[in-house]
Every structure is written in C-alpha cells, then in structure tokens.
C-alpha cells in the first residue's frame, strides 16, 4: 500500500507517518521509485501500536523508541524485555535523595516480602512518589502502599497472563506493551469510575442515614 492508504487505514496523518519514519519508529517501506515506497500490513500493525503508545499512553518518542527496541531485540528474554518496557513508561525519577522516602520504600518491600534493587526504576519511582507526597504535607500517604500492593497482585497476574497467553515471544512482548501502556490508562479510568461510584454512595448515605 502507498503511504496515503497507510494513513487512511491507520488514522495517522501522512506528515506524522513521515515523522515516525524519520525517528526510526517505523521501518522504511520498500522503494518502488526514488520518491515512492510500498508499505505492508506489518507497517500498519506497527503504526497502530506506536499510535496507541503515543496518543493513549502518553509516551515520549524516546520512550517509544526504547519499547520498540525491546520488542525487536531477538536476544532479549521476555523477563528483561518486560523490565525495559516498564522502565520506559515509568514516571520521572524524583526525590532520589529523600532518605525518609527511601526508608519507607525499604520497609514496604520488607513487609511484602518483595526483592527490588534500589537502582531499579520501580524502586526509584516509588521513592519519588513518597518524596513528593512528603513535600506537599502528606507523609501519611505511605500508609496506602500495603493496600495498593493487595490490589496490584491480581492486576500483575492479569498482565502476565495476558502476555504469556500469546503464541510467540514477539506477540508476548507486544502483549506486555499493550498491557502496560493501555492497561495503566484503563486502570486509571476504572479507578476514577469506582471512586466516583463510592463517593456518590457515601454522599447518599450521609444525606439519608439509615434509621
């Protein structure tokens, strides 16, 4: 297909497709003339994946490039690729020097029986969250972590189950991308819906207490 058809089928403007090509997010098409190229269904599939990461997941071009690199590395194990993908979509590293936040994270991990290096993206991200919470006067926010862990376990199992149910490693890695990027966006939306429902129920109970 020509780039115009690729644009029509993917919903991505031609100018954006050309930008993705320049940035290496999309492999070059097969040249049919000096100024024309032909694209395949593989290009369409990759383009839709990139679009999901950028538009729905809010990933930067650099983060998308890292994720695609993990997808395309034949030597990288599923476990390591999952780490690369998760690190690429992690929030900025903040509060790295906050000793109290470090201690809170270490205590949380010990309670949960989880092993995680202080240099890992997840550890540093959580330190950043707790450091920011302390800065805005909400040190007790750390008390929520154990409840978050209880909720996160079945979510992590669902993520892994979705990825590992794929037929090939490539499909599994793509499942990790979809589960991580779109899964986080979906969970944020579901959490907002649940919070809205609970808030409405609480308000109704407050306004109309049981006799």
UniProtKB/TrEMBL annotation:
Molecular function GO terms recorded: DNA binding; DNA-binding transcription factor activity
Residues of the HTH merR-type domain: 1-70
Pfam families assigned: MerR_1
Gene3D superfamilies in UniProt: 1.10.1660.10
Keywords of the record: DNA-binding
SMART domains reported in the protein's UniProt record: HTH_MERR (SM00422)
InterPro entries the UniProt entry points to: DNA-bd_dom_put_sf (IPR009061), MerR-type_HTH_dom (IPR000551), MerR_fam (IPR047057)
Domain of life: Bacteria
Protein name: MerR-like DNA binding protein
Naturally occurring in which organism (per UniProt): Saccharothrix saharensis
């Amino acid at each position: 297909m020509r780039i115009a058809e690729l644009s029509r089928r993917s919903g991505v403007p031609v100018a954006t497709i050309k930008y993705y090509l320049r940035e290496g997010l999309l492999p070059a098409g097969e040249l049919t003339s000096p100024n024309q190229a032909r694209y395949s269904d593989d290009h369409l599939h990759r383009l839709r994946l990139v679009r999901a990461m950028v538009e729905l997941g809010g990933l930067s071009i650099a983060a998308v490039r890292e994720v695609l690199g993990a997808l395309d590395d034949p030597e990288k194990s599923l476990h390591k690729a999952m780490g690369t993908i998760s690190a690429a979509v992690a929030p900025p590293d903040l509060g790295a020097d906050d000793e109290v936040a470090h201690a809170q994270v270490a205590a949380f991990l010990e309670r949960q029986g989880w092993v995680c290096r202080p240099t890992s993206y997840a550890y540093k991200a959580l330190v950043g969250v707790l450091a920011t919470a302390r800065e805005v006067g909400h040190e007790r926010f750390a008390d929520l972590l154990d409840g978050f862990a209880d909720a996160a376990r079945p979510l992590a199992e669902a993520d892994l189950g979705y990825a590992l149910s794929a037929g090939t490693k490539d499909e599994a890695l793509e499942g990790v991308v979809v589960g991580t990027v779109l899964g986080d966006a979906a969970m944020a939306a579901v959490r907002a819906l649940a919070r809205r429902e609970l808030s409405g129920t609480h308000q109704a109970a407050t306004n109309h207490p049981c006799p």
